[in-house]
Design brief:
nine-stranded mixed β-sheet
Length: 260
Amino acid sequence: MTADAPLFDRVLLTNDDGIEAPGLAVLEEIAAQIAREVWVCAPAHDQSGTSHALSLHAPLRLARFGERRFSVSGTPGDSVVMGLRHLLRDTPPDVVLSGVNRGQNLGRETVFSGTVGAAMTALLLGVPGIALSQAFTDRTNIPWDSARHLAPGVIRRIWGQGWHEAEACLNINFPPCRPEEAGPMVLTRQGHGVLGGAEVVTGRDPRNMDYHWLQLTRGAPEDGPESETLAIRSRRIAVTPLSFERTNIAVLEAMRKALG
């Protein structure tokens, strides 16, 4: 296979920022370089923070946005299920690519991420999943070119390394800089990330009714040398294998010892 030959026969794209998000357009450009056939099934509207959520108590509706391009009135997880079990039921894709998210997905924040949640849903359904996110320092000037130019090479490099046969998906974060300023790809651990917690902001609307807005808080905890947070700060491409297993082995063993 030559360096510019298609890596995949068919891919399914989704995201959590919505069908009209600029990051999804970037992902379509990326996919066109590595796949013969590209399908899109993404949420109709922004679904950031919905994690792995599935809509079990409401009907879902598909809308066609073009050839092999659809939106779903639901979550990123819904979009993946609709793509794999409805649109591509008889012709499954080789991989599900989720993103490119507007902003980094690092550390504990990945628990809430709809971008990562979509990749994990693909994993649950037996299809390899890769989440892609573009970090930024200025929200009015997202450096999309970093992911646009670097992602095809990264995906070619990491494909076929056995991770998708070990019940894992990949979380890839691109640094907030021009592609020529980015360091090489590095394999990383999840770490703590920058998510500190969540607060409630309360106000009153024009009808004198209370409203409440959830606001995430972020800090700068010290992550280890192998963490994705440190990699992004060093302008490197962070690739982290994630799985469903969340058992705290140290606590498990301590409790077993204490409780006999």
